[in-house]
Amino acid sequence: MENGKKLGTVEEGKYADLVVLNENILTIPKDEIWKVKPIMTLINGEITYDN
C-alpha cells in the first residue's frame, strides 16, 4: 500500500503517529496544560514510549 493511503485516519492496517495523554487538553484550564503528561507515543504504528 502506498504511503498516502496509510495516513489521515486511525484504522486497522494504517500507520499511526499519536500521543496518548493523561488529561484531555481540550477540557482542562489553559494554565494547567503544562502539567499534562504523555502516557504512550506511537510512531509509524510502533509504540515508542509506554509509561
From TrEMBL:
InterPro entries associated with the record: Amidohydro_3, Metal-dep_hydrolase_composite
Top-level taxon: Bacteria
One example GO MF annotation: hydrolase activity, acting on carbon-nitrogen (but not peptide) bonds
Pfam families: Amidohydro_3
Domain Amidohydrolase intervals: 5-49
Protein name: Amidohydrolase 3 domain-containing protein
